[in-house]
Amino acid sequence: MFSHRVVRCKAHHEVGAASIGERLARSLLALGVAGCSSGGGASGAGGGGGADAGAGADAAGVGAPATDATIDEASSAAVPRDAGLPEVGSLCVPAPPSAPPCGAALCGNGTIDTCTTGDQFMPTVSEQCDGLASIAASHQTCASLGFADGGTLGCTAQCSLDTTRCDRCAHGSPHVIGCTGLPDPTLGGFPLATSSDEIMVAGVYATSTGRAVRLVRFAGDLSLLWVSGCFGPGNVASVAIARSPSGYILAVGTEQPNTLQIYPLATDGSIRGPVRTVAVQFDAGTAYVPAASPLLASRMVGGGSPGGGPLLVYTATLPYAPLGSNGETRTAVLLKDDGTDETTPVNLPGTFVFSDRASGVFVGDGFLYAQEQEAYPSTAGVWHIGLDGALGAGQTPSGTVRIAESPSLAWTGTAAYFTFASYDPMGLSAPYLAWMRLSVTGAPLGPATPLAGSNDQPYSAALAVGEDLLALTTGTSGAGVYAQRFAADGGLVDPPFAVDTLDGVPGNQSRLALLGSVPIAAWSDGVLSLARLSP
Predict the structure, then answer these.
(1) Of 7, 13, 113, 141, which one's alpha carbon is 20 to 30 angstroms from that of 242?
(2) How far apart are CA 51 and CA 41, in angstroms?
């Protein structure tokens, strides 16, 4: 059983904090809650040195929340930093920051220096700042950098601007009813799952010894409840999380070597049962190949309660590469509440690319799963996977005339909305966000059509809100986060409205989920931000 450690920390006001952990601590104080630098004396769970997660954990007494953490004088809320999870490395020490552009000798002298590099393509580099006084002297503010709602601009110990306390949320929008944010611990996409009144976010965190998993838990009002320590098998490359009847199922994929581990978690984020490693049997014998790149889809409709374990889809690297294949296959299986297999794993036909460009949704009698396929032009395939694990006939509802990328599925209770970024392979017409209705089997119920008024760049998330479709899109310049709501006939209910005030946020780092009946938008540009949108 892993020991529990209560975090005690003082207010952290240094502007020069450089690490992600230090920025996290500072942002927690900005939110009125407590946190400590991961590189300091406090951390998440004990049991360091890369404890063997595959051996399972003693569920009794694991992850009891801390309640007596010392907090900032302005707040009375405590933030537990321990989930009874094994650590990677000793204290979840963040990866070392990059060196100052002009070296440590000049960074800290109070002057913004420019120095030569010897690089013919970039002969000089400059510090962005050197202390708070340099920021004031240069008249730089959060607002001048594009953060319309202001905030506090800082300078790191590496003489680069720190925008982690700049306000990214579009508070002026009538459809944005609440926001929060904290420095993003993720290196890539960050999956999230919701219960009736909480939000759990999983991310890949860069540590001094590799890459690990970290969980962040928010209340329904977006107040921060808890941040876990670092854990996982090491060399983590991808994560997925989904609701299950007793809490959550977390899937963690690694690379070099590829592995896939399944963690059953309680609602507070603690491990509630044995952790298992997934291996794929590729023939009738006993030979197995590793699995990685997981996707999870909860077995529930909208913001309701899950009726069983989630759908798991993952990538297996074959010991041979069939002609025209990249040597990988996507495998689907339904899981039990404890994270073990409920059905026999099945391989999806075809070849695949960008396993993160996929989507799954529960449709009552099973799941629909959409995946961008490796072909030219790229297409998006859709499969029905029954509650018995049976794989239905694959569909290509997007057609093959235009390129289809980044598919997303949403379920209204009677029909599925299938959206994707549509491109002209010849570049003769503008890209657009396309949509179509699908039956419960994935068969098209009509042609793919452009969504009225949609921005002309790829989007990354769609969600059914009643009979309407809510989509997150990028701005017309390929940046920024906007939300749009469409009626069942594809007509625009509301004009696009900004969720983020900064026109520099990558739209492919955004997510949507339902918290009860309330849509939750999440996005990242180095700061993890959450917003509650009007139902």
Answers:
(1) 7
(2) 19
Q: Is 143 exposed, middle or buried (0-12, 13-18, 19+ CB in 10 A)?
A: middle
Q: Please, are residues 11 and 38 in contact by the beta-carbon 8 Å criterion?
A: no
Would you call 17 helix, strand, or coil by DSSP? coil
Contacts of 404 (CB under 8 A, 6+ apart): 372, 377, 378, 379, 380, 398, 420, 421, 422, 423, 434
Phi, psi of 249 (to 5 degrees): -115, 125
SS3 for 445-458 is CCCCEECCCCCCCC
Alpha carbons 335 and 350: distance in angstroms, whole number: 23
**In this structure, is the dihedral angle defined by the CA atoms of residues 170, 172, 176 and 182, taken in order, positive or negative?**
positive
* Residue 441 tokens, joined: 């089997």
The pLDDT assigned to 71 comes to 19
Closest CA to 238 of 271, 274, 190: 190
Buried b (16+ CB within 10 A) or exposed e, 427-466: eeeebbbbbbbbebbbebeeebeebeebbbbbbbbbbbbe
Alpha carbon distance 231, 98 (integer Å): 24
What's the rounded mean pLDDT across residues 57-72?
26
462 pLDDT tier (thresholds 50, 70, 90):
confident
Which tens digits make up the pLDDT trace of 21-44?
333 333 333 333 323 333 322 222
Query: Which residues 6+ apart lie within 8 Å of 176 measured at CB?
Result: 169, 170, 497, 499, 531, 532, 533, 534
CA neighbours closer than 13 Å in the CB half-sphere of residue 252: 28
Which residues, at least 6 apart from 324, have a Cβ–Cβ distance to it below 8 Å?
351
Residues 6+ apart with CB under 8 A from 137: none
Yes or no: say if 428 and 402 are a contact pair by the CB < 8 Å rule.
no
Residue 190, phi then psi, degrees to nearest 5:
-125, 105
Instruction: Classify residue 121 by burial, with Cβ atoms within 10 Å: 0-12, 13-18, 19+.
Output: exposed
pTM over 0.85: no
CA 162 to chain centroid, in Å, comes to 22
Dihedral-angle region of residue 302 (phi above 0 means left; psi in -120 to 50 means alpha; beta otherwise): left
Residues in the chain: 535
Is the pLDDT at 359 greater than 60? The verdict is yes
Question: CA–CA separation, 324 vs 322, rounded Å?
Answer: 6
